[in-house]
Amino acid sequence: MASGIHADDSKSTEPLLRAGRTVGFLEEARIQSQGDPKTASFEAKPVFDKAISYIPVVSSDVQQGFDYVTGKWMADEQRRLDEQQSEDNIKAYTTRNGQLMALAAEWKKTHRVDSDSYFNPNQEVNRASMDGAAHASGMSGERQ
Questions:
Q1: CB 106 within 8 A of CB 5
Q2: Alpha helices in the chain (DSSP H)
Q3: Which residue has the higher pLDDT, 51 or 4?
Q4: For residue 74, which of 42, 36, 38, 37 has the smallest C-alpha distance?
Q5: What CA–CA distance (Å, rounded) separates 143 from 6?
Q6: Sign of the Cα pseudo-torsion (121, 123, 129, 135, in order)
Q7: Residue 97: burial class (beta carbons within 10 Å; 0-12, 13-18, 19+)
Q8: What are the tens digits of pLDDT across the range 17-67?
Q9: Which of 79, 84, 82, 77 lies closest to 43, judged by CA?
Q10: How many CA atoms lie within 13 A of 70 on its CB side?
């Protein structure tokens, strides 16, 4: 992408926008390849439920206690998974945004364009990235 910016001797913004669309497209493809977010589960619960049902007299009390503890554990585990997903999303966004800002800075440095109040390379590369992500989302059949 940087070589495309350097190879263009004109003052065209196309190499910058193309680089932004590429970053956005690749980021959306990465997100889609990860699949659905993780959810907490306790796959052995039916086995424990069955075993508890064989306890004479107190099985309903034991079952209620077991369900309460299991529910609390699953809520805590889901919260942990959600926090980890949030942290991962923030890291990915920070990395992608850094890449985009580096591309915009490289374009500005290479093209030495007089300050144009109507063209902000940082905003334009970010907008192009969103267009690339939307295109990737559309190609997968998943419109948002």
A1: yes
A2: 2-7, 14-34, 45-53, 59-111, 121-139
A3: 51
A4: 42
A5: 34
A6: negative
A7: middle
A8: 998 999 999 888 888 887 777 888 888 888 888 888 888 877 788 888 989
A9: 77
A10: 14
Threshold 0.85, pTM exceeds: no
If you search the block for the tokens 């980890």, which residue do you land on?
84
Rg (CA), the chain: 25
Residue with tokens 């796959």: 43
Q: Give the phi and the psi of residue 120 in degrees, each rounded to 5.
A: -110, 110
- Tokens representing 75 are 């809520």
Determine the residue type at 142: E
C-alpha closest to that of 45 among 32, 26, 20, 63: 63
Question: Could you tell me which residues come within 8 angstroms of residue 56 by beta carbon, excluding any fewer than 6 positions away?
Answer: none
Tokens 């910016």 appear where? Answer: 5
